[in-house]
Amino acid sequence: MNPALKTSSALPLESSIFNFQFTRLLLLLAVWAVLPAPARAEGKLHLPPEATEGLRLLYSGDPDAAMEMFRRIEERQPDYPVGYLLEANAQWWKIYCAACEIKYNTIDAWHRSRQLEDDAYLALTDKGIALAEQSLKQNDTTEMRLYAGIGWGLKARLLGLWDDRRGTARAGVRAREHLLRAVQLDPELADAYTGLGLYNYYVDTLSAIAKILRFFMGIPGGSKREGMRQLELAMEKGEITAVEARFYLAKNLRNYDQKYERAVAVFEPLVAQYPQNPVFQLLLGDTNAKLNRKQEAAASFHAAEKIELRDLACQARVRELSRAALAALGEPEAAPASR
């Protein structure tokens, strides 16, 4: 059996990947990064049709088609940050897929060196940040606080993937400041709790050494329990961050808590709603493999392998990982469509 995917009762994250945990402390606090503007402080968002359709395409596994939608928003509203931030988030999912690998017995995006295409991603985040912060100089509004935080958070995600801990911390702290102010202005904005939940979760997950460094860097503490509560709130009530809140809650339960049963339960609705998203299929299969549910895991890996994608880099990586995972399982027959 391939040792990279064999069932393990506990992942060696606390002892062997301190650097990974530290960079994830702040890089993931902004996974809410798809927030168009609230028209009024009632916790509700009002999305242009292109944003809604683009998000559907994105989570259905076609970020290139999603970016076409988001660019229409940019063309119609060139001085508004929404389109640029949505496009950057779509690019993030392309980056994430291409960076996935099997490490620590787990399929995930752990690290990637800087690539040429990263400059375009950073240009989008910088554009969104600049437009939002320029607007904030005139008027302190909920939507622009959200957009500024989104931009800094998106920047932190990529810096974290590069293992640029100092840059990740700087960007993450800026993102958190804006997000907290947005919630202060509108406590009912459920989507904002995705970012707060991730921050609370990751700060409390840090190793003892990382917590000491956090103290000296002046990074506020957090509570894993509160973070999970906030992620669940966003997952259930968020208008546009529900998918990402669910995805990262499931990943956290798998990676850090080894609560595989619960992680599967959180992953499964994503696969049911978006069966053509190969990333969702891969991570559900990986989690079922840890429960020694070989047929269910194989079904997910086979499904991921068969998905045709416009993103050839993502498709090549998905097929490579699917075949490695199936080999580790001994390639049992796929499970029936319904359980």
Walk me through this protein's architecture:
This protein has 339 residues and is mostly helical. α2 (18-27) runs antiparallel to α9 (192-205) and α3 (49-59) packs antiparallel against α4. The chain has a two-stranded antiparallel sheet. The model is unreliable at 1-19 and 25-41 (pLDDT under 50). The protein folds into 2 domains: 13-190; 259-339, Serine Threonine Protein Phosphatase 5, Tetratricopeptide repeat (Alpha Horseshoe), CATH 1.25.40. β1 (100-103) and β2 (106-109) form a beta hairpin. It has helices spanning 13-16, 18-27, 49-59, 63-76, 82-99, 118-136, 142-161, 165-185, 192-205, 208-217, 224-237, 242-255, 260-273, 278-290, 294-306, 312-329, and strands at 100-103, 106-109. 67% of the residues lie in helices and 2% in strands. It is globular.
Task: Present the secondary structure layout.
Elements: H1 13-16, H2 18-27, H3 49-59, H4 63-76, H5 82-99, E1 100-103, E2 106-109, H6 118-136, H7 142-161, H8 165-185, H9 192-205, H10 208-217, H11 224-237, H12 242-255, H13 260-273, H14 278-290, H15 294-306, H16 312-329
Antiparallel strand pairs: 1-2
Helix pairs in contact: 2-7, 2-8, 2-9, 3-4, 4-5, 5-6, 5-7, 5-16, 6-7, 7-8, 8-9, 9-11, 11-12, 12-13, 13-14, 14-15, 14-16, 15-16
Number of helices: 16
Segments where pLDDT lies below 50 for 5+ residues? 1-19, 25-41
Number of domains: 2
Q: What share of the residues lie within helices?
A: 55-70%
Measured distance between first and last alpha carbons: 26 Å
Alpha-beta classification? mainly alpha
**Strands, total number:** 2
Shape annotation: globular
Q: How big is the Rg?
A: 19 Å
Quote the average pLDDT. Answer: 83
Largest sheet report: 2 strands, antiparallel
